[in-house]
C-alpha cells in the first residue's frame, strides 16, 4: 500500500519492531558481530525485507549485518547495503555466501571498493551464475587492485549471469568497460558521470544490450560520426540516455555530444531501429525541427527526454497520445521529469523551478504532485538548491484549504522535510566566513533565526541557532541593534535558553552563545537593558553567579563548574556592566549580596583578569554616583579602595577581550572629581583597547572628547600618579597615530 496515504502493512510494522529490538534478540560473536538467538527460519522474501528495513532505518553496519551470516535462518536473494557503513570484510562474511540475484552496494561509505564487491561475489561459485543485477553507483572501483584466480583475472566478466549493471558516479575506465562488455547476457548498463571517454567497447554486447545510460560523461572524447557509427550497430538497443548536466561547469562545453544528439535526431530510422526511448535532456543544440523529424519517423516511440533543451513545447509532441515527455512545457512534462530524474539533482532543480510557476495559483488538492516534490527532497537531503525550491512548491500545494484535503501522513513528511531545509540553512549560516565576510541582510537574518528559535527545542538546532544569533547581533549597526533591542520577545527567548541550560547544569556552547548574544544586545542599548530587568534577567544571572539560589539542589551539582569557568563569568559580568551604565537601572544592582560577590571576584588574584576587569567596571559605575548610593557608605569606600589596589595588580592582556561602540559610558568616570579607583578603572580600560587597536580607537577618543578628559587628568597635580601615567600613555598613542596618518595623508594628497 501507499504509506503516505494508507496504513502501513502488518509485515512492515513487525519488521520495524524487530529492528528496534535487535540488540536484545541477538548474541555477540567474538568479533563483536551480532547473531540472532533462537530465530525461526524466515521466509526468503521476509529475509530480503528485513535487510531492506535495516537499511532504511539506518542501523545496518559491520555489527548488525552479522545476523545474515546464518544462511540456515536468513536466506537472501535481493540484498542492499546502500549508503550503509559496511566494510569489505563484513560484506564478504555476511552477504557473499548467499545465492544472490540482486545487490545494491551504491554509495557505501568507509572505503569499500567496487573491486572488493566483485571479488567477494566471485568467491562464491553460485553467485557467479545467479547474480543478475548489480549496482555500485558512487563507489571507487579500484579496478587495478583485482587479483587473479587460478591464472584468470577476476572482474565483471566472472559474473556471467549479470543482466543489469549500474556504475554511475564511479571511476569506471575504458579498459574496465571492455571487460564489462564481454558479459554474455548484459541487457542494461549505466555508466553515467564516469570516466569513460569512448564507447567502442559496446560493440562487444551489441546483440544483447537493450538499455544504455550515459548521462554526463565527464571525459567523453568521441566525434559525432564515431559515436553514431557505434550506435548504428546496437541493433537490440531500445533505450538510450545521452543527457547532460546543463548546470555543470569545468567539463568542457559538451559540443561534440550536443552535435551527436542533434545528428541522432535527424538521422535515418535505420539508425537504432529498435529504439523506443531516447533521453537527451540538457543538450544545447537540439532544434524543434530535429525533434519533429525524429518523432514523426518513429511511430513506436514511448519516451523522449527534452528537459532543459528549450524544445519541449514542440507542437508534434502533443499529437502523440502514447508518448511520455520530460520537459517544462506543461504539468505532465514537469511531473514526468520529477518521476524519471529523482536521482539527478540538476534535473530535479530544473523541474521544481517550473513546477513552482505552474502551482502558484493552484486551487485543487494534488497529493500526487506533493509526493513527487517530497521524493526529490528525499533523494537530495544535502542540496540547498533542491530543498529551497521544493519547499516553495510545497507551500503552493498546501496553502489555505488545500492542506485539509491532503493525507495526514503526507503532510507529516512535508513538515519534516521543511524542518530539514531550515536545518540546512542554519548549517550554511554556521560558517565564520559567511557570517563575518559575506554581505547579506544580517538584521533580517537575525530576526528570522530568533523567531524560528521560539518553536524548536532540538538541542543541536538550538545550539546552531543561538551561535548564529550571537554573531549576527555583534555585526549589526547601532541603529539595527537599537531596533532589535526594543522587542521584549527576543530577550525572553534568549533568557529562556540561559535558564534551561542553567537548570540542567550545562555550561556548554549553547549557554555561552546565548550569554554572548544578550551581552551584545544590551551594549549601550537602554531599551534592551530595561527589557532584561523586566524579564527578571537579573535574578537569573544572580543564580548563574550563585548569589540567589532558586534551584539549590540543581545548582549544587554544577556550582564549581560555573565558578571556575571564566568565559561564563565574563559574559555574565559583561552584561551587568551594560546594565550599570544605565543610570535609572543602577538601583536594581544595589544589592549587598550581589556587590559583595562582585567585589570578591575583583579581589581574588586566582580569578582571570578578564573576569576581574568586568567586575571592576560594574563597581566603578555604581560608586561613581554618590547621590544614588543607597547602601552602607563603608562598603562604597571599600569598593573605591579595592578598585585601585586590584587594578594595579593586573597584567596587560594580549588578546582582544572587549570592543566598544563608543566611550560615552566612560566620560562620567573620567571626571576629575571622581575617586581614584573609578578613574583608574576607566583609564586602564581605555589604555587596554587602544593598545590593541590604536587606529580604531584613537579617532573615537578625539571625536568623543575623551582626549580632553585625559589631558585634564594628566594636568592636575592632585591626580594619582598611577592614573596620570596611564593617561599620558594613552595620549602618546593617540599622538603617534595622528602623526603617522597625518604624514600618510600629506604624502598621498587629498
Automatic annotation (TrEMBL):
InterPro entries found in the cross-reference section: ARM-like, ARM-type_fold, LRR_dom_sf, ZER1-like_C, Zyg-11_UBL_adapter
Pfam families: ZER1-like_2nd (PF22964)
Highest taxon listed in the record's lineage: Eukaryota
Domain Protein zer-1 homolog-like C-terminal: start-end pairs: 376-735
GO CC terms, sorted: Cul2-RING ubiquitin ligase complex
Keyword Metal-binding in annotation: no
Keyword annotations of the record: Ubl conjugation pathway
Protein name: Protein zer-1 homolog-like C-terminal domain-containing protein
Originating species: Scophthalmus maximus
Amino acid at each position: 500500500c501507499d504509506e503516505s496515504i494508507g496504513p502501513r502493512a502488518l509485515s512492515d510494522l513487525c519488521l520495524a519492531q524487530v529492528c528496534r529490538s535487535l540488540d536484545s534478540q541477538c548474541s555477540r560473536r567474538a568479533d563483536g558481530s551480532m547473531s540472532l538467538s533462537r530465530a525461526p527460519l524466515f521466509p526468503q522474501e521476509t529475509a530480503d525485507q528485513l535487510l531492506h528495513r535495516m537499511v532504511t532505518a539506518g542501523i545496518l553496519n559491520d555489527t548488525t549485518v552479522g545476523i545474515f551470516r546464518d544462511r540456515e535462518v536468513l536466506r537472501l536473494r535481493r540484498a542492499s547495503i546502500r549508503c550503509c557503513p559496511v566494510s569489505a570484510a563484513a560484506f564478504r562474511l555476511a552477504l557473499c555466501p548467499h545465492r544472490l540475484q540482486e545487490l545494491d552496494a551504491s554509495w557505501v561509505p568507509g572505503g569499500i571498493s567496487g573491486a572488493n564487491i566483485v571479488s567477494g561475489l566471485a568467491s562464491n561459485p553460485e553467485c557467479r551464475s545467479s547474480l543478475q543485477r548489480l549496482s555500485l553507483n558512487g563507489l571507487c572501483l579500484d579496478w587495478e587492485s583485482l587479483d587473479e584466480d587460478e591464472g584468470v583475472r577476476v572482474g565483471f566478466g566472472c559474473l556471467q549471469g549479470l543482466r543489469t549493471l549500474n556504475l554511475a558516479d564511479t571511476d569506471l575506465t575504458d579498459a574496465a568497460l571492455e571487460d564489462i562488455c564481454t558479459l554474455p547476457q548484459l541487457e542494461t548498463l549505466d555508466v553515467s558521470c564516469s570516466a569513460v571517454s569512448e564507447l567502442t567497447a559496446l560493440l562487444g554486447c551489441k546483440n544483447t544490450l537493450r538499455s544504455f545510460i550515459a548521462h554526463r560523461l565527464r571525459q567523453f572524447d568521441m566525434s559525432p560520426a564515431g559515436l553514431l557509427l557505434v550506435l548504428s550497430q546496437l541493433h537490440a538497443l531500445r533505450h538510450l540516455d545521452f543527457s547532460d548536466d546543463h548546470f555543470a561547469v569545468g567539463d568542457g562545453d559538451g559540443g561534440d555530444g550536443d552535435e551527436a544528439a542533434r545528428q541522432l535526431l535527424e538521422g535515418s530510422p535505420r539508425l537504432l531501429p529498435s529504439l523506443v526511448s531516447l533521453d537527451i535532456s540538457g543538450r544545447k543544440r537540439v532544434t524543434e525541427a530535429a525533434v519533429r523529424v525524429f518523432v514523426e519517423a518513429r511511430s513506436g516511440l514511448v519516451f523522449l527526454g527534452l528537459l532543459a533543451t528549450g524544445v519541449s513545447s514542440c507542437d508534434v509532441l502533443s499529437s502523440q497520445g502514447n508518448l511520455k515527455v520530460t520537459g517544462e512545457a506543461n504539468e505532465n512534462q514537469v511531473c514526468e521529469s520529477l518521476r524519471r530524474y529523482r536521482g539527478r539533482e540538476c534535473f530535479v532543480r530544473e523541474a521544481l523551478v517550473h513546477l513552482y510557476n505552474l502551482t502558484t495559483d493552484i486551487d485543487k488538492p494534488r497529493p500526487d504532485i506533493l509526493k513527487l516534490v517530497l521524493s526529490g527532497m528525499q533523494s537530495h537531503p544535502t542540496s540547498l538548491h533542491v530543498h529551497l525550491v521544493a519547499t516553495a512548491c510545497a507551500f503552493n500545494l498546501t496553502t489555505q484549504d488545500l492542506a485539509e484535503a491532503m493525507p495526514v501522513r503526507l503532510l507529516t513528511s512535508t513538515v519534516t522535510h521543511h524542518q530539514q531545509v531550515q536545518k540546512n540553512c542554519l548549517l550554511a549560516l554556521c560558517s565564520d566566513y559567511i557570517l563575518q565576510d559575506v554581505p547579506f541582510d544580517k538584521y533580517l537574518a537575525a530576526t528570522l533565526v530568533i523567531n524560528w528559535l521560539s518553536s524548536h527545542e532540538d538541542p543541536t538546532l538550538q545550539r546552531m541557532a543561538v551561535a548564529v544569533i550571537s554573531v549576527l547581533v555583534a555585526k549589526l549597526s547601532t541603529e539595527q541593534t537599537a531596533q532589535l533591542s526594543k522587542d521584549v520577545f527576543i530577550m525572553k527567548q534568549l533568557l529562556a535558553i540561559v535558564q534551561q541550560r542553567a537548570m540542567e547544569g550545562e555550561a556548554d556552547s549553547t549557554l555561552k552563545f546565548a550569554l554572548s548574544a544578550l551581552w551584545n544586545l544590551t551594549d549601550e542599548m537602554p531599551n534592551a537593558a530595561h527589557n532584561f530587568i523586566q524579564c527578571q534577567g537579573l535574578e537569573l544571572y544572580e543564580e548563574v553567579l550563585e548569589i540567589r539560589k532558586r534551584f539549590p539542589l540543581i545548582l549544587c551539582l554544577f556550582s564549581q563548574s560555573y565558578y571556575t569557568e571564566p568565559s561564563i563569568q565574563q559574559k555574565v559580568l559583561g552584561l551587568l556592566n551594560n546594565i550599570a551604565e544605565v543610570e535609572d537601572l543602577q538601583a536594581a544592582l544595589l544589592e549587598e549580596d550581589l556587590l559583595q560577590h562582585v567585589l570578591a571576584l575583583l579581589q581574588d588574584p586566582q580569578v582571570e583578569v578578564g573576569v576581574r576587569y568586568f567586575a571592576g567596571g560594574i563597581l566603578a559605575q555604581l560608586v561613581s554616583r554618590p547621590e544614588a548610593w543607597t547602601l552602607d557608605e563603608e562598603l562604597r569606600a571599600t569598593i573605591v579602595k579595592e578598585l585601585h589596589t586590584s587594578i594595579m595588580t593586573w597584567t596587560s592582556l594580549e588578546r582582544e577581550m572587549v570592543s566598544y561602540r563608543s566611550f560615552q559610558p566612560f566620560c562620567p568616570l573620567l571626571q576629575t572629581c571622581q575617586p581614584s579607583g573609578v578613574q583608574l578603572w576607566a583609564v586602564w580600560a581605555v589604555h587596554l583597547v587602544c593598545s590593541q587597536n590604536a587606529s580604531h580607537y584613537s579617532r573615537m577618543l578625539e571625536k568623543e572628547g575623551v582626549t580632553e578628559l585625559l589631558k585634564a587628568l594628566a594636568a592636575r597635580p592632585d591626580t594619582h600618579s598611577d592614573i596620570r601615567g596611564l593617561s599620558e600613555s594613552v595620549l602618546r598613542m593617540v599622538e603617534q597615530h595622528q602623526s603617522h596618518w597625518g604624514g600618510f595623508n600629506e604624502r598621498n594628497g587629498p
